[in-house]
Design goal:
single chain, 546 residues, mainly alpha
Length: 546
């Protein structure tokens, strides 16, 4: 434990070493540990539990980060660092092949029974696979965070090596061994220790298993893909897609041969990973909440990676291929309510809209339907509204008006109940807006009325109100703002109290982009509602107004 503490302290200091002789000496001291950390024996100690979630992940992550920082800061050490990383990968590959062959041999002996194979693994093999798995999780994390060390050719080789290493056979071996450790009767002290480590992984929301390895690998792939599109370092999917949306109108240079080779392998890996997740949907439904969460993270990384490839080379990653995957994610209620995944899906759709006029037109029709039909979290609804605005900015004003009318119609579905307030605060002249902006003849093609019946869900109504406000305020045209205000205010008292409160609070956002007349009318409405709230009394109404 003392040696381990000293080693970790040296790793922490590595990025700060600026003197080349000192950096060379430090690299010589710690690089042997890099190649050995996937099978490093550590003397049992209660202090090991302080290295959350597991000492082998922490050790590998710190060691790899340290040597990569030394190589990045001192170019003359790059070759030594590459040799050290290659030695680690070779050891991982050799051990993975060894464990695979032993498991397959037992499968053949036991008639192919996977559970029998697991229970006949020796304690040494179980611990070896556990150590190797956690070490590789640490390596993939460090590699993704320090990707800038490698050239594009080296990144291609790194991804190819770990794609081959993380084969289906090895992932089955990992899952079998970890399940055996988890469910085996209490045995040796080492087995009890590893069961405690597994509990620590689960407590952190990262259950130890094959899916955690897939998540780490796809994050490495995603960071590699993003590095071809933007130059920012250590960027996640959401920030990446926001940056791409902001730079959508900028032209991109022609990709080099190294880029094209990288695009091919990343597009293939990403597509395969999405298909595997779709095929394993039954498993995900039976898995724990955190297993589902990990799978959604994997899917988000794969979708982002594929999108980056489409931006670099549409022949290698066809945008038409990814659209059904995106729609399938939104059609599944569990996936649609995962904030991270739905954010990536919606922003991916928005970025795809920049690739062709046909795609932006199609998304201009489908995005309002998505907002109306898909119960999402408040954060997901906000992202959907932003993406709708992004898409509509690329289309004509007539399309924007038609979309606003369609969303307004979606609020016309009555939702009976005792909470529906009496009266209608019609302080805006909707007829004047009709004369200024007659409805587009194609409005019927964006009719959303039938889809609202999928749920008298307050979340859907809130999303529609937010979308109307976001589009009208984002376009910034006073006449469109007046149209949106007119539609929204006339819905007060028509659906239910929760929708009324949402409209009352969101309408204020439109005051900054509307005309003086609309602002005065809005103030009159607020005065009337305040009086009603005081008379009842109705604290919720007063809170919405204030």
């Amino acid at each position: 434990m003392r040696e381990l503490e000293v080693l970790l302290a040296l790793c922490e200091a590595a990025p700060s070493v600026s003197h080349l002789p000192s950096a060379t000496q430090l690299l010589q001291q710690i690089s042997p540990y890099v190649s050995e950390c996937c099978y490093q024996a550590i003397v049992p100690s209660t202090s090991l539990y302080s290295l959350q979630p597991c000492p082998w992940e922490v050790l590998t992550s710190k060691l790899v980060t340290a040597v990569l920082s030394l190589g990045a800061n001192h170019p003359s050490l790059r070759e030594q660092v590459n040799d050290s990383i290659s030695a680690y990968t070779q050891h991982c590959t050799r051990f993975a092949e060894y464990f695979n062959s032993h498991r397959q041999g037992r499968d053949n002996t036991n008639g192919g029974g996977e559970s029998n194979a697991g229970h006949t693994m020796s304690a040494r093999e179980l611990l070896g696979i556990s150590t190797l798995t956690t070490s590789m999780v640490g390596f993939l994390d460090a590699a993704a965070r320090n990707l800038s060390f490698w050239t594009f050719e080296e990144r291609h080789r790194l991804i190819q090596e770990y794609d081959e290493l993380l084969s289906d056979e090895f992932l089955v071996t990992v899952e079998t061994a970890l399940s055996t450790v988890r469910h085996a009767p209490v045995g040796t002290e080492a087995i009890r220790t590893w069961r405690q480590f597994q509990k620590q992984y689960s407590a952190s929301g990262r259950p130890l298993g094959a899916m955690l390895l897939r998540e780490g690998f796809m994050r490495l792939v995603m960071v590699t893909a993003s590095s071809m599109v933007i130059s920012s370092k250590s960027i996640n999917e959401v920030d990446l897609l926001q940056t791409i949306m902001a730079q959508a109108t900028q032209s991109r240079g022609s990709p080099s041969e190294a880029h094209l080779a990288l695009v091919d392998i990343i597009a293939t890996i990403s597509a395969r990973e999405i298909v595997k997740l779709e095929d394993g949907s039954d498993y995900l439904q039976l898995g724990s909440t955190w297993q589902q969460r990990l799978a959604y993270i994997v899917k988000a990384s794969a979708l982002t990676s594929f999108l980056c490839c489409a931006l670099m080379n549409e022949e290698a990653a066809d945008a038409d291929v990814v659209m059904p995957w995106l729609e399938a994610s939104l059609a599944d209620q569990a996936q649609a309510k995962d904030v991270h995944l739905v954010t990536v899906v919606l922003r991916t759709m928005a970025v795809l809209a920049t690739l062709s006029p046909a795609t932006v037109t199609a998304l201009g029709r489908s995005m309002p339907r998505i907002i109306v039909r898909t119960p999402m979290s408040p954060e997901g609804s906000r992202v959907a509204a932003d993406c709708l605005l992004f898409i509509l900015r690329q289309l004509s004003q007539d399309t924007v008006i038609t979309t606003l009318y369609s969303l307004g119609n979606a609020l016309s579905v009555r939702h009976g109940g005792a909470d529906a307030p009496p009266g209608n605060y019609a302080l805006f002249n909707d007829l004047s807006m009709e004369s200024q902006h007659p409805r587009d003849s194609t409005a019927s093609t964006v009719n959303l009325m039938s889809s609202v019946g999928t749920a008298n869900d307050p979340a859907v109504y809130d999303a529609v109100v937010q979308a109307i406000v976001t589009v009208a305020s984002g376009i910034g045209d006073p006449t469109l703002t007046a149209l949106a205000l007119s539609m929204l205010v006339q819905k007060v008292g028509k659906i239910n109290m929760s929708v009324d409160l949402k409209i009352i609070s969101e309408a204020a956002i439109l005051a900054s982009t509307g005309g003086v007349g609309e602002f005065r009318s809005l103030l009159r409405l607020y005065m009337s509602l305040s009086q009603q709230g005081l008379t009842k009394p109705d604290q919720a109404l007063l809170d919405a107004v204030s």
